[in-house]
Specification:
The structure is a single chain. The protein has about 300 residues and is of the alpha/beta class. It has 2 domains: about 190 residues, Rossmann fold; about 100 residues, Rossmann fold (3-Layer(aba) Sandwich). β4, α4 and β5 form a beta-alpha-beta unit. α6 crosses α7 and α10 packs across α11.
Length: about 300
């Protein structure tokens, strides 16, 4: 359903990273996807189902960037108007990409939750079709296709490491991988400064820390959400917390060792893989590089760090 609008991204074996980390590292390069993020898969699937209504009413959503580009790109493909609400301080690269895709961009609030609440208000006031960035179930089948590709390309994978912001990517991992082989381990990753989902998983209930203090915009969420929590609560095998310094090191490693450009959230899974180290010895590990939308200035700074 979505294959004509997105690309099948490579799963690249890294000999150097495998030697460095002590286990087999396979990089799933969603950073090479259209819009340079896995999120576009979800937006295309949503529009393939809701296209007529979207064209009629226009769509609105809130995002730190990659979900926004997903919606904007899908809207452009299907001929719908798109409005994106973002908190102040989002990457310039992401904002410019949205405008290139024809989206109207509105800035509101300091954190994602403030932008999301304002987007919901605008949707009600203007009669637009609101796409919840996390709790919209129609996004999930599209996102999960990246993990279908993983299983097709590496059927004997032992571990999949996927960052958790809202949780759609990790949800796709557990649904696909566990359906094929319950022994495949799925490990989530959160930033130390934005660990609401991690705390929810530990406490077996939804937790909102109200805090998203991390350079990794794509996983900078201050609360956990119902839909991914329901999917992941009893299925995900572990969640690893990583610091901003560990994320920066992962961005640098990907650039210098593999020539891969990753935004901080896109490098979070590699940061977790490095942290887990010998715990993954002799395993075949898929490390999700989920996005590559990063300001050149930030990339240069991280490489020089």
């Amino acid at each position: 359903m979505i294959s004509k609008y997105v690309v099948r991204t490579p799963l690249r074996y890294s000999r150097r990273l495998s030697r460095l980390f002590g286990f087999d590292v396979y990089l799933k390069l969603e950073s090479t996807q259209i819009t340079r993020s896995f999120k576009v898969r979800g937006g295309i699937h949503y529009m393939s189902v809701m296209g007529d209504e979207a064209i009629k009413r226009g769509v609105i959503t809130a995002s730190m960037g990659n979900h926004a580009q997903s919606v904007a790109y899908a809207s452009l493909v299907f001929g719908a108007r798109s409005t994106i609400v973002m908190p102040h301080g989002v990457s310039r690269v992401k904002v410019e990409a949205l405008r290139d895709l024809g989206a109207e961009v509105i800035f509101h609030g300091r954190i994602f939750e403030e932008a999301r609440e304002y987007a919901e208000k605008l949707a009600m006031d203007k009669g637009m079709l609101y796409i919840h960035p996390v709790n919209e179930i129609l996004l999930y089948p599209g996102v999960a296709t990246m993990h279908l590709e993983n299983i097709e390309d590496l059927p004997d994978v032992d571990v999949i490491i996927n960052p958790i912001g809202g949780g759609s990517g990790a949800s796709g991992a557990v649904v696909v991988a566990k359906s094929v082989d319950p022994n495949i381990k799925v490990i989530g990753v959160q930033a130390e400064g934005a660990q609401s989902f991690y705390q929810s998983w530990l406490q077996k209930r939804l937790v909102s820390t109200g805090k998203a203090d991390t350079i990794a915009e794509g996983i900078a969420t201050s609360r956990a959400y119902e839909l991914p929590f329901t999917i992941l609560r009893d299925r995900i095998d572990d969640i690893v917390l990583v610091s901003d310094n560990e994320i920066i090191r992962a961005v640098k490693i990907l650039a210098e060792v593999e020539g891969v450009i990753a935004e901080p959230a896109g490098a979070a899974a590699l940061a977790a893989a490095a942290k887990l180290g010998s715990n993954l010895a002799n395993k075949k590990v898929i490390v999700m590089v989920t996005g590559g939308n990063i300001d050149p200035e930030a990339l240069a700074k991280y490489i020089q760090a």
